Amino acid sequence: MIQPAPLDEAAALATFLREQADAVRTAAFGLTEEEARQSPARSDLSLGGILKHLSHSWSSWQRREAAERGERGWELTEADYADFYGSFALTADETLTQVLEQYDAATAGLVDAVGSMDPGADALQAPAPWFGQFEPTRVTKRMLALHLIEEFARHAGHADVVREQLDGALAGQLTMAVNNIPGNDFIQPWERTAG
Q1: Which of 9, 79, 162, 177 is most buried, by CB atoms within 10 Å?
Q2: In this model, does residue 177 exceed pLDDT 60?
Q3: Distance, CA of 168 to CA of 101 (rounded, Å)
Q4: Three-class SS of residue 6?
């Protein structure tokens, strides 16, 4: 019997990131355009907004990499701020299909970048002026990857709550439906019900 090769650290980090990214995408399975925009909890979070916001992570990663290479400065422009703050909700001309396509491309880029990095390599983390930090800080690529995993995991939880509030769908039911896993005595795949 062939034993699977153990994952190196970068591949393991990429696997954890992919699992969280998949969990967020699964929460959007079977949504209508209207449902993707609804914010059924006390906050303004919608599933479409969560997907759009997490897609922004890839442009942030690319911007940080470009700044490290000296191709741009570390300062955030008004356009950067507008892009970030506009990432939390779908605009009137955006569709769920478009946002899912952007999300798939963005998360594939992030997973590939994390999977091919040297986790111990030095990196600079972008300033976070909203926390009073105006200069980049020196970290490792490992810390950047762990931050991404944390960010996606936090929003995967948000996505589960928002989805459950929309139609009662649970993460396990949605996962079964997405992956065509048959039901059992404990859980059944999600199906849209009439009404």
Answers
A1: 162
A2: yes
A3: 25
A4: coil
| Residue listed under structure tokens 């798939």 | 104
Question: Alpha helix locations (H) across the chain?
Answer: 9-27, 33-37, 47-68, 78-85, 96-115, 141-167, 171-178
Residue type, 47: L
Nearest residue to 26 (alpha-carbon basis) of 176, 183, 187, 182:
176
Tokens of 105: 């491309």
What confidence tens digit (pLDDT) does each residue in 84-116 have?
888 899 999 999 999 999 999 999 999 999 999
At 50, list the tokens: 């969560």
Instruction: Kindly report the pTM of this predicted structure.
Output: 0.90
| Per-residue confidence (pLDDT) for residue 2, from 0 to 100 | 58
DSSP for 80-93, written as a single string: HHHHHHGGGS--TT
Q: Cα 151 to chain center, whole Å?
A: 7
pLDDT digits (tens, 9 = 90+) for 114-124: 999 999 999 98
What is the H or E stretch that residue 139 is in?
Answer: strand 137-140
Tracing tokens 């963005």 back to the chain, one arrives at 106
Residues whose CB is less than 8 angstroms from the CB of residue 156 and which lie 6 or more positions away in sequence, other chains included: 20, 23, 24, 27
With tokens 């040297």, the residue in question is: 118
Dihedral-angle region of residue 30 (phi above 0 means left; psi in -120 to 50 means alpha; beta otherwise): left
Round to whole Å and give the CA distance between 41 and 158: 10
Q: Looking up tokens 């999600």, which residue turns up? A: 190
